């Protein structure tokens, strides 16, 4: 049985006055497709203590994107860049290192892929990386399941920003978008926003149209039950999968079925023979994506790229494939 741990995927809500936790708020197929083939990640040791910020996906490792972030003028600290997280959060060890005191009565509801949990919040003065500056606010303290990272960098302040992730040169930059078109060698993939900042691509798999959510904070690619059923209707034989345990950011566990799947088409990209874990994941319920085919694309696929640019102003992904 495989075990895939996931960083924070989704939702951090702003807190209401104590003592109750807050209600949740949101803190076309190409003519000549470019093909990439993911590595086999059924048995992977995730290494979380490497001294780097951008690590590509390899046969023995799922890729990571850590942003070098200054908090209260200290750091930089490594925060997981999570395009599926609505708000940023810190781990307990970083809160302790910064000397910030949490108020146990100031709670918020944290939602991950597999469940939800009430967690305390702490005040910060500043959080800064590149052209991104967050001034005084409260951030959640999340369970430390991030493989050595110090927290999560969410999407709450990324309107009109451009994130440039260079896997080959171990580099990440966040800057103001100047509405730049994709450069030579890059393919542009349009996105729409769900819940204000969640990146969604209209994709297809084996002839099944679906919503593909881009989640740089998730290690593995996940599918909902509606997608599994739609794919099953197009197959002529019964497919047997194997069980996987999925551990979310809240440390809740859900059991799913890992299955081989047809090619996935994202704009001009075609991922050949991918596989993913299917289940009735809690996050699809929260996003109200249970009735139509949908999936979360994690770093097992995204980490295979040479360069990934996310331009929130243009509502566009700009991707470059490895030379090989």
Question: How would you characterize this protein structure?
Answer:
This protein has 324 residues and is mainly beta. It has one domain: Acid Proteases (Cathepsin D, subunit A, domain 1), CATH 2.40.70. 8% of the residues lie in helices and 42% in strands. It is built from four helices and 28 strands. The protein has helices at 92-98, 225-234, 282-286, 299-302, and strands at 2-5, 11-12, 34-36, 54-55, 64-71, 74-81, 89-90, 103-111, 116-124, 127-129, 132-134, 137-141, 151-153, 161-166, 171-176, 187-190, 192-194, 198-205, 208-214, 222-223, 242-247, 253-260, 264-266, 269-271, 275-278, 294-297, 307-311, 316-320. Strands 1, 3, 17, 18, 19, 20, 21, 22, 23, 24, 25 and 26 form a twelve-stranded mixed sheet that branches. A hairpin with a 4-residue loop joins strand 8 (103-111) and strand 9 (116-124). It is globular. 45% of the residues are buried.
């Amino acid at each position: 049985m495989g075990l895939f741990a996931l960083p924070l995927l989704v939702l951090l809500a702003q807190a209401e006055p104590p003592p109750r936790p807050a209600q949740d708020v949101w803190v076309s197929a190409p003519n000549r497709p470019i093909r990439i083939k993911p590595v086999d990640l059924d048995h992977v040791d995730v290494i979380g203590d490497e001294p780097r910020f951008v690590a590509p996906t390899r046969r023995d490792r799922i890729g990571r994107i850590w942003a070098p972030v200054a908090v209260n003028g200290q750091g930089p600290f490594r925060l997981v860049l999570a395009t599926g997280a609505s708000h940023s959060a810190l781990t307990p060890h970083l809160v302790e290192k910064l000397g910030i005191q949490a108020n146990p009565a100031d709670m918020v509801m944290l939602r991950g892929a597999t469940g939800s949990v009430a967690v305390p919040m702490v005040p910060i003065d500043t959080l800064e990386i590149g052209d991104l500056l967050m001034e005084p606010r409260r951030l959640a303290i999340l369970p430390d399941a991030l493989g050595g990272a110090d927290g999560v960098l969410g999407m709450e302040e990324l309107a009109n920003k451009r994130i440039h992730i260079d896997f080959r040169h171990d580099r990440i930059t966040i800057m103001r978008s100047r509405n730049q078109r994709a450069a030579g060698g890059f393919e542009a993939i349009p996105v729409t926003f769900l819940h204000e900042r969640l990146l969604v691509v209209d994709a297809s798999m084996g002839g099944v149209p679906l919503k593909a959510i881009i989640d740089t904070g998730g290690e593995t690619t996940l599918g909902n039950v509606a997608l599994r059923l739609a794919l099953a209707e197009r197959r002529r034989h019964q497919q047997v999968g194997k069980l996987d345990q999925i551990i979310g950011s809240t440390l809740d566990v859900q059991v799913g079925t890992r299955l081989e799947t047809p090619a996935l088409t994202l704009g001009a990209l075609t991922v050949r023979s991918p596989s993913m874990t299917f289940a009735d994941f809690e996050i699809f319920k929260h996003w109200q994506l249970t009735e139509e085919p949908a999936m979360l694309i994690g770093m097992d696929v995204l980490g295979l790229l040479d360069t990934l640019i996310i331009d929130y102003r243009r509502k566009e992904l700009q991707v470059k494939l490895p030379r090989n």
